[in-house]
Design a protein that fits this description.
Length: 242
């Protein structure tokens, strides 16, 4: 992927600025200041694995992630509405942190919530029921009993169904995410960073006199967008795919 290639080029001195549809945190000098990379879900269109065996077409991008990890970047993968059950492979086999729904992280003195964002709309009960079933212990045990080749072929069905049940305009989803962020600001978070919606934006606002940040990452395929945190500030950046 162009994003991962650009990070490796940056380390070797060939590239420009940080790039990717992730939240890149840079402070301590690893890879020219990049310490942590947060990828907020739907990195893969589906995910089923067994031991070290994964879908063959995903191998190249997984090797790129491991290359970045070996060079000092801490990788954090958030599960999305397309890719879940990631922990068996990425944590169990590769030692990469997996975030199942959301995480609270500290950036300097700021409390930041990161999440894929597919559970923001609590009124979309059809999707939430599907999500609960697909992540249930029953479905986990069931998929472990089935051949990977069958799961990989059948995955397009669940992927398309998930797309249908979460389909809405980017503006409508953005407004729901904005309302969600306001609730989290009142809970004490200083920033809310979400994926899921392919619209990219960053907004700064005041809540009780304190500066708050709301951001949606966008994507790497259409917008070439990513969020960077450096020197105490967030910036929404873009890069260009080759």
């Amino acid at each position: 992927m162009a994003f991962l290639d650009s990070l490796r080029e940056k380390e070797s001195g060939k590239g420009g600025r940080n790039s990717g549809e992730g939240q890149v945190k840079g402070n301590n000098g690893n890879l020219n200041g990049i310490d942590d990379l947060y990828i907020l879900g739907d990195f893969f269109d589906f995910w089923f694995s067994e031991g070290h065996v994964i879908y063959p077409e995903f191998m190249d991008v997984v090797e790129m992630l491991m290359d970045l990890k070996e060079r000092g970047i801490r990788i954090h993968l958030c599960e999305g509405n397309h890719d879940f059950f990631l922990a068996d492979y990425f944590t169990g086999q590769l030692g990469i942190e997996v975030i199942k729904e959301w995480a609270s992280i500290d950036l300097d003195d700021r409390r930041v919530l990161v999440s894929h964002g597919d559970t923001v709309d609590e009124r979309n009960r059809r999707y939430l029921l599907l999500r609960r079933f697909l992540r249930s212990s029953f479905f986990y045990k069931l998929q472990r009993m089935l051949p990977l080749s069958f799961l990989w072929k059948a995955s397009l069905i669940s992927s398309n169904l998930s797309k249908e049940l979460t389909a809405e305009t980017a503006d409508a989803l953005t407004e729901k995410m904005r309302r969600f962020s306001l609730r989290k600001f009142r809970d004490g978070f200083d920033a809310v960073i979400l994926g899921h919606c392919h619209k990219h934006l960053m907004e700064e606002q005041k809540v009780n006199g304190n500066k708050k940040t709301f951001a949606i990452l966008g994507d790497w395929l259409q917008h070439d967008s990513y969020l960077c945190y450096e020197n105490g500030a967030f910036t929404l950046e873009t890069f260009r795919s080759p």
